[in-house]
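Researcher: Good morning. I'm working through a list of sequences from a screen, and I'd like to move beyond sequence-only analysis. For each chain I'm collecting a predicted structure so we can compare shapes side by side. This is the next one on the list. No need for commentary yet; just the structure.
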Amino acid sequence: MHDVTIIGAGIIGTFIARELSKYQLNVLLLDKENDVSKGATRANSAIVHGGYDAKPGTLMAKFNALGNPMFDKVCKELGVLFERIGSLVLAFDNEDMKTINELFQQGIENRIPGMDILLGSEIRRMEPNISRKVIGGLYSKTAGIIGPWELAIALTENAVDNGVKLSLNTEVRDIECIGNKHRLITNKGMIDTKYVINCAGVYADKINDMVSNDIFSITPRRGEYYVLDKGTGGDFINKVLFQCPTKLGKGVLLTPTVHGNMLIGPNAEDLEDKTATETTYEGLEFVKKVSNKSSDNIPYSKNIRTFAGLRAQPSTGDFIIGEAKDAKGFINVAGIKSPGLSSSPAIAKYIVELLDHIFDGLKMKEDFNPIRKKPIIFMELNDDEKKELIKKDSSYGRIICRCEMITEGEIVEAIRRNPGATTVDGIKRRVRPGAGRCQGGFCGPRVVEILARELDEEPEKILKDMKGSNILIENTKNNNLAYEEV
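Model: Good morning. Structure tokens for this chain:
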């Protein structure tokens, strides 16, 4: 019998799992996919928002304001990259400036620090590559950039190290309420638990409907993006650049990433299909057309990848957080659209407070360790450190990914960590081979070979990402794949 079972291992579920791992509880984190961070967490704008955009009085405003200042501490503890680079909302005419003033006033109501309204000339001194048509804008100093999937993976590692159980490839098909417990009917059998926390993203409405008559709906809203090569983020732009928001969201933005790329997007398209993560010609052309308003010389020739993600648009217009009125012990954390990432640490704290009240007091663990061992990043070491590491483990002397300069040792460590990577994209999310200019053209075969060796599997069984995404069909000849010695 579990005390708490969390359904969904995205950024919200993993933050809650890590927060609950501080207490004397039997916690299970499960997900229907073969890795954590496979939904909206791996396909979004990767921004920690300042907090001025959310309507005052909403849960989005409350948790964004509380969550933003919490990232510095948690990212330091977990060894995750996070940079407070600030954001700008650009105004192109007097109507936009009215919106800028409204956002500024909302920010004051939401108690957001570090905001200023700037003239176009002041903004151009910050961002020389923006359009000459910009007449002013809102500057938010506290906005930041992060790797959301890297954070979710780190949260999971730390939670598991502190006693949380993780069950992947586990799909909840029904939930039965039996007395004071819940029985989850899954593809792997039955799971009994006292409390359920529903963090199932675009599927949260389906999970809710299994136990509650208090119905809400989640509409998947697709957003498509361009990823530009390293050097564009930080060189071409320095801060997160927004246009004035519309009824469909914050609009098309330009932002550096923590790894030096530039991200451009998203559009916003409401769909019925909760699996529609393919990109479209029309969507990407829309992103390109709208983004050119912010800057007329965006280096799209340096595009290395496009992708799409789905955010969970709730029928209520706000986050849905709390115990279902007609299902005691069933807690929804649903409709967590933007600023969901920014709000995630504060939401996790709130859920723990809720459970503390329900349990009539939670007991802290004396041996909780908040520190996650940071993975070795070989190319960040100095020459003496590299030589010493290679002496201890020669696999760190073999470069597998030339674009990102990733070694075999880093890939092996990503597989052996708990929970470790089991797919090519799982490796990519952890240590970035395949994230560079050639998008895995050089390193992909070597990553497959290393995964097969470390997992003791045939190469044909290694997946690119999700179930059924096999890369190889059969072995035609015995080739030794190349690698480059440092």
